[in-house]
Amino acid sequence: VEIRKATRNDAARLAELNGVLGYPVTAEVMAERLEGLLKSETDTILVADDDGTVAGWIHGRIQEILAAGRMGEICGLVVADDQRGRGVGRQLAEAVEKWVHSRGLESVTVRSNVVRPESHAFYERIGYVRFKTQHAYRKKLSS
Ligand SMILES: CC(C)(COP(=O)(O)OP(=O)(O)OC[C@H]1O[C@@H](n2cnc3c(N)ncnc32)[C@H](O)[C@@H]1OP(=O)(O)O)[C@@H](O)C(=O)NCCC(=O)NCCS
After folding, report:
1. What is the DSSP letter of 41?
2. Would the pLDDT of 125 be above 90?
3. pTM
4. Nearest atom (ligand 1) to Cα of 123
5. Which of 122, 125, 126, 130 gets mutated to test ligand 1 (max ligand atoms within 8 A of its CB)?
6. Which string of b and e fits 42-80 if b means at least 16 CB within 10 Å?
7. C-alpha torsion sign, points 16, 95, 135, 42
């Protein structure tokens, strides 16, 4: 597969693959998100293009946290069910790692839900080391 930058035209397929992650979203909503993120200097959205079909996508981000400084993160990664196990996820992760490294950072972080044991095995296989376990909290805001 060829790893390339996502474009607006990928919105429908990216939305479809987002459903696999458990966050169903319409192509229109995905197109709006893409529009903003594709302009962002601190984000990269890459796709694995298999002869015209997008087999997977990844979102990498560099953010500055007051307490921790600048850090590189994989914010989302998904490979289509029927394309797994052929190195697509690894290629996407490596492309983000290269992007983060080229911006002067020495590490990449990823948070993976405990309900996705397959992704834990994947990350460990490609060199990531678990360094922290957290709880995620959310408060619903009344309108
Ligand atoms: C996790 C995911 C991205 C892996 O993508 P993939 O393209 O199948 O992974 P690769 O083929 O590049 O695998 C790279 C290595 O990890 C290993 N690996 C991948 N999935 C694995 C699994 N479920 N169990 C054990 N090892 C696994 C592969 O065997 C390979 O090792 P090798 O190089 O020694 O052969 C894919 O399964 C996926 O999209 N899952 C659902 C979404 C998800 O969990 N995303 C991550 C959340 S942040």
Report:
1. T
2. yes
3. 0.96
4. 16
5. 122
6. ebbbbbbbeeeebbbbbbbbbeeeeeeeebbbbbbbbbb
7. negative
> Atom 8 in ligand 1: which residue has the minimum CA distance?
84
Contact 67, 76 (CB under 8 A): no
- pLDDT tens digits, residue range 27-85? 999 999 999 999 999 999 999 999 999 999 999 999 999 999 999 999 999 999 999 99
The alpha carbon of 48 and the centre of ligand 1 are apart by a number of angstroms equal to 14
| Residue reference for tokens 């360094």 | 131
- From residue 25, alpha-carbon distances to 21, 42, 55 in Å are 11, 23, 18
Q: Is 79 left (phi over 0), alpha (psi -120 to 50) or beta?
A: beta
State which amino acid sits at residue 132: K
